[in-house]
Amino acid sequence: MKFQNFKVIGPALIQPKLIGDDRGYFMEAFKDGWFRENIDDVTFVQDNQSMSAQVGTIRGLHYQTAPFGQGKLVRCLKGAIFDVAVDIRKGSATFGQWIGATLTATGAEQLWVPDGFAHGFCTLEPNTEVFYKVTNPYSRDHDAGLAFDDPAIGIEWPVDLAKAILSDKDRVQPKLETLA
């Protein structure tokens, strides 16, 4: 596996090695020792999966508050997404800054989103399936989010935001300024 870091310290883009032939491919999608040595020393406790039927579906920006903050290792099983992490660590030199990466089923890329970041994605293909490992279980009482279109963050989503498909919850998330 290879990985690259971003200008915002914490997230990492991971590229597993695909071993392929005319039958298809094989890859090691996750290896605990390698991940701990190269990315972050965390334990994953839950796996989640979502399917979004329509292109332009935006899910996020989501995070959980302490003591249930979650790190997420995200990959696309079918289709493609533009995946985003926003630094919400108070006191961080990059607070409010975001990184983004395109994850595809064919490319097998994975994005590590550590605790202290809000996470979201938009679908680039129909019937997109996303799988992610998390470092803490879901807690309704610690569920939180930010507005996906907050100009203070300035995410450059690769879809028409006027036509974006959102949950009722994601339409009314607060702005970044509520965290300052």
What does this structure look like?
The structure is a single chain. The protein has 180 residues and is mostly beta strands. It has a single domain (2-179), classed as Jelly Rolls. The chain is 6% helix and 39% strand. It is built from 2 helices and 13 strands; from the N terminus they run E-E-E-E-H-E-E-E-E-E-E-E-E-E-H. The protein has helices spanning 32-38, 168-171; strands spanning 2-5, 12-15, 19-21, 24-26, 46-52, 58-64, 72-78, 80-87, 98-104, 110-113, 117-123, 128-134, 143-145. A 6-stranded antiparallel β-sheet has the order 1-2-10-7-12-5, with no helix packed on it. The chain has a 5-stranded antiparallel β-sheet with strand order 9-8-11-6-13, with no helix packed on it. The chain has a two-stranded antiparallel sheet with strand order 3-4. Strand 3 and strand 4 form a beta hairpin. It is globular and about 50 Å long. The termini are far apart. One of its GO terms (molecular function) is dTDP-4-dehydrorhamnose 3,5-epimerase activity. Keywords: Isomerase. Pfam families: dTDP_sugar_isom. This is dTDP-4-dehydrorhamnose 3,5-epimerase. Pathway: Carbohydrate biosynthesis; dTDP-L-rhamnose biosynthesis.
